[in-house]
Write a structure and sequence with these properties.
Elements (H helix, E strand, L loop, with lengths): L1 H145 L1
Length: 147
């Protein structure tokens, strides 16, 4: 009887241990699959977030690059415009200076020509006066000699 009881207790305990062991093993499998699923879920979320951030950064880089290129083009056009403006101002100044010099040269040339004409007329007049004086003197001397 004791032996039979021991056998029954032993089989109950073994059955209970097997039952608990299978429950624990099933629980471990469930927890493990839940953890694996959670890890996969988190990993896919992190990968998606990384992709999202990467695409945002690429878009931002492209946006900044286009802004910088646009700013460079704007500054370059301003500099080119300023250079053209400055060059046209210098050319205009040079043309005005050249026309002033040409005008001054013409003025000086006409003054010199006028002065030359004036002196030439004076010299011719002086020569004529001297010649008439000499002729008159010659005539007086000749009349005195004849006379």
């Amino acid at each position: 009887m004791v032996r039979g009881w021991d056998q029954r207790c032993l089989s109950l305990v073994k059955g209970w241990d097997q039952h608990c062991l299978s429950m624990v093993e099933g629980w471990d499998q469930q927890c493990l699959s839940l953890l694996k699923g959670w890890d996969q879920h988190c990993l896919s979320m992190v990968k998606g977030w990384d992709q999202h951030c990467l695409s945002m950064l690429k878009g931002w880089d492209h946006h900044c690059l286009s802004m910088v290129k646009g700013l460079d083009q704007h500054l370059l056009s301003l500099v080119k415009g300023w250079d053209q403006h400055y060059l046209s101002m210098v050319k205009g100044w040079y043309q005005r200076l050249l026309s002033l010099l040409k005008g001054w040269n013409q003025c000086c040339l006409s003054l010199v020509k006028g002065w030359d004409q004036h002196w030439l007329a004076l010299v011719k007049g002086w020569d004529q006066r001297c010649l008439s004086l000499v002729k008159g003197y010659d005539q007086r001397c000749l009349s005195l000699v004849k006379g």
